[in-house]
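Troubleshooting log. The previous structure file for this entry was overwritten by mistake, so regenerating from the original sequence record. Sequence copied from the archived sheet and checked twice against the printout by T.R.
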Amino acid sequence: MPDKEKIIVTKVNKEGVFNFEDFYKFCAKWVKDKGYLLMEERNHEDKEESIKKRIVWVNNKNISDYFRYQMKMEFLTDMKNVKTKKGKKTNKGNVQITIKGILIYDWQIEYGWGADWECSPIKKFLRGIYNKYFIKGRVDKYRKGLKEEVEDFSNQMRSFLNFQKK
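Regenerated output below.
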């Protein structure tokens, strides 16, 4: 099992009028453009008055043979369909997105490719030493890079939601 380190957790909230479909497409395009592989899980509940959705994304981006960025995202919505004055379909309600940035060490173990550090306590100890002292510079660089990507994405989401045409 690879080691995982949670680097950053951020939230984006919007209450009001927005087009969830356009927002969703914007997020998917950003993730793809940044080189992440997207895995998605949906939970959708329609009622007469409102639409509630819970969508979870697990986005992985291999940085090297040893490191991987992972962005876990959870979209929670409670909205209803409305029409604008111009007759366009849009949504009114709220959306909350939680983004967790996780740095994964030695991710290839999941697939049986990497060294098996977990087979003995001494190997697990040696991996800790390796991560903490031998590659500390790389680890710090990747932590900073992941944090910057998550912050950039959350800022892009806020901008999209705040400046979306109504």
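The CA atoms of residues 14 and 162 lie 8 Å apart. Archived copy saved in two places this time.
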